[in-house]
Design brief:
Elements (H helix, E strand, L loop, with lengths): L5 H6 L7 H18 L3 E4 L2 H7 L15 E6 L2 E7 L3 H8 L4 E6 L5 H6 L8 E2 L4 H9 L3 H23 L7 H14 L3 E8 L19 E10 L2 E10 L5 H20 L6 H14 L13 E3 L21 E5 L2 E2 L2 E2 L4 E4 L2 E4 L8 E4 L2 E4 L5
Parallel strand pairs: 1-5, 3-4
Antiparallel strand pairs: 1-2, 2-3, 6-7, 7-8, 9-10, 10-13, 11-12, 13-14, 15-16
Helix pairs in contact: 2-6, 7-8, 9-10
Keywords: Aminopeptidase, Hydrolase, Protease
Protein name: Xaa-Pro aminopeptidase
Pfam families: Peptidase_M24
Length: about 375
């Protein structure tokens, strides 16, 4: 197992915020205030805070609420945190130009941050969720570089762990090894899934003590600097049945259709329609999309948002995506970025076996 690089170690102990990127994010939020005719906005969710602060860690428990809230107003950015968190936040997570206030650990975090507004009544995040999501869509240069590094780390973790697996490796052993690799590079494993051959029917398979057997799927969603990279890989210890190989090729063809539909200016619900048609087109049946979510834009949330018929957001350049079409016993998933030259796969490791699908290298099942 490799150890974290010096750059990864530095990321874990210093605020990642980039001055130029942060200035652009502040401009985008001020535009939201201008449109709403308001003078302040209170940010309280992990997604909004990590985006706006450009990667600061504002959590303690991965399952808990943020331990900070931030008031953006015309005069600047004002972060409020609990008194027992303030020292670490000031030393390691506070970007330049952000003021820091505290509230007792037993106090009311959001109320204290709202009270910093001139009128004590800031715009609340829930009223501008659509506008904030649009502000997050287009990644900026420094965060794009960080996202690429994280995605490569996640893909390499998959290669290292699955290449060492055996049919006797249990699902818990496999995901624990993935967790160790993700944490070792300064990231947080938000999702770890695995199904061996005895549990291949489950598409969101939390691990068990079952051995993985002849074939297994592993899924990692890793977060660092607020950004979340998502990747699925398969490992098998035989040549695969003709039915499995055919299904793997067809699910890659479904993904290729989705990739072709992911272009600037298209709406997410238009892509959703293409997803539904692609399943039928490639022999999976018209109802296959109903059996699992299909992914969507990525970035500071696992999906931002999940694609549905109601999601009318327009796609923009430099926007990340994670589509995850699946069928019985098959799934394909990578984190990609829409660039002016097309979709670029971020979660790539040159050691992983691939095949060409519609002009792009896509992952095959690893056969150690």
């Amino acid at each position: 197992m490799t150890t974290p690089t010096q750059s990864a170690t530095a990321r874990a102990t210093t605020a990642p915020g980039n001055v130029a990127d942060r200035a652009e994010k502040r401009r985008r939020v001020l535009d939201i205030l201008d449109t709403a005719g308001r003078d302040s906005l209170l940010l309280t969710s992990n997604t909004a805070l990590t985006w706006y602060l450009d990667g600061s860690r504002v959590h303690i428990s991965l399952a808990g609420d943020p331990i900070a809230a931030l008031l953006v107003d015309r005069s600047g950015d004002h972060l409020v945190t609990f008194n027992n968190e303030a020292g670490r936040m000031a030393a390691e997570e506070l970007p330049a130009g952000v003021s820091l206030d505290t509230v007792p650990w037993h106090g009311q975090l959001h109320a204290a941050a709202a009270a910093l507004a001139v009128d004590g009544d800031p715009l609340v995040e829930a009223t501008v969720t659509t506008e904030l999501r649009a502000a997050r869509q287009q990644l900026l240069p420094a965060e794009t570089a960080r996202y690429h590094e994280l995605s490569v780390d996640a893909a390499q973790a998959m290669t290292d762990v699955l290449a060492a697996a055996t049919p006797q490796t249990t699902e818990f052993q496999l995901v624990s090894q993935l967790a160790a690799r993700i944490v070792s590079v300064g990231a947080e494993p938000l999702v770890l899934l695995c199904n061996g051959s005895s549990r291949s029917d489950f598409r969101h398979p939390l691990a068990t003590h079952a051995p993985i057997g002849r074939r297994a799927m592993a899924v990692v969603c890793a977060r660092r600097d607020g950004l979340v990279a998502n990747v699925t890989r398969w490992v098998a210890f035989d040549a695969g049945t003709p039915q499995e190989l055919d299904a793997e090729a067809r699910i890659a063809a479904v993904e290729a259709d989705i990739f072709r539909a992911t272009v600037p200016g298209a709406r997410l619900n238009q892509v959703f329609t293409e997803i539904q048609q692609a399943y039928a087109r490639h022999g999976f049946g018209a109802d296959q999309w109903t059996l699992h979510h299909q992914g969507g834009p990525a970035g500071y949330a696992g999906r931002d948002p999940r694609v549905t018929a109601e999601a009318a957001d327009s796609i923009v350049l430099n926007q990340p995506f994670t589509w995850n079409p699946s069928g019985p016993g098959v799934k394909i998933e990578d984190t990609v970025l829409l660039t002016d030259s097309g979709l670029r796969v971020l979660t790539a490791d040159e050691r992983w076996p691939t095949t060409e699908v519609d002009g792009r290298r896509r992952p095959l099942t690893l056969r150690p």
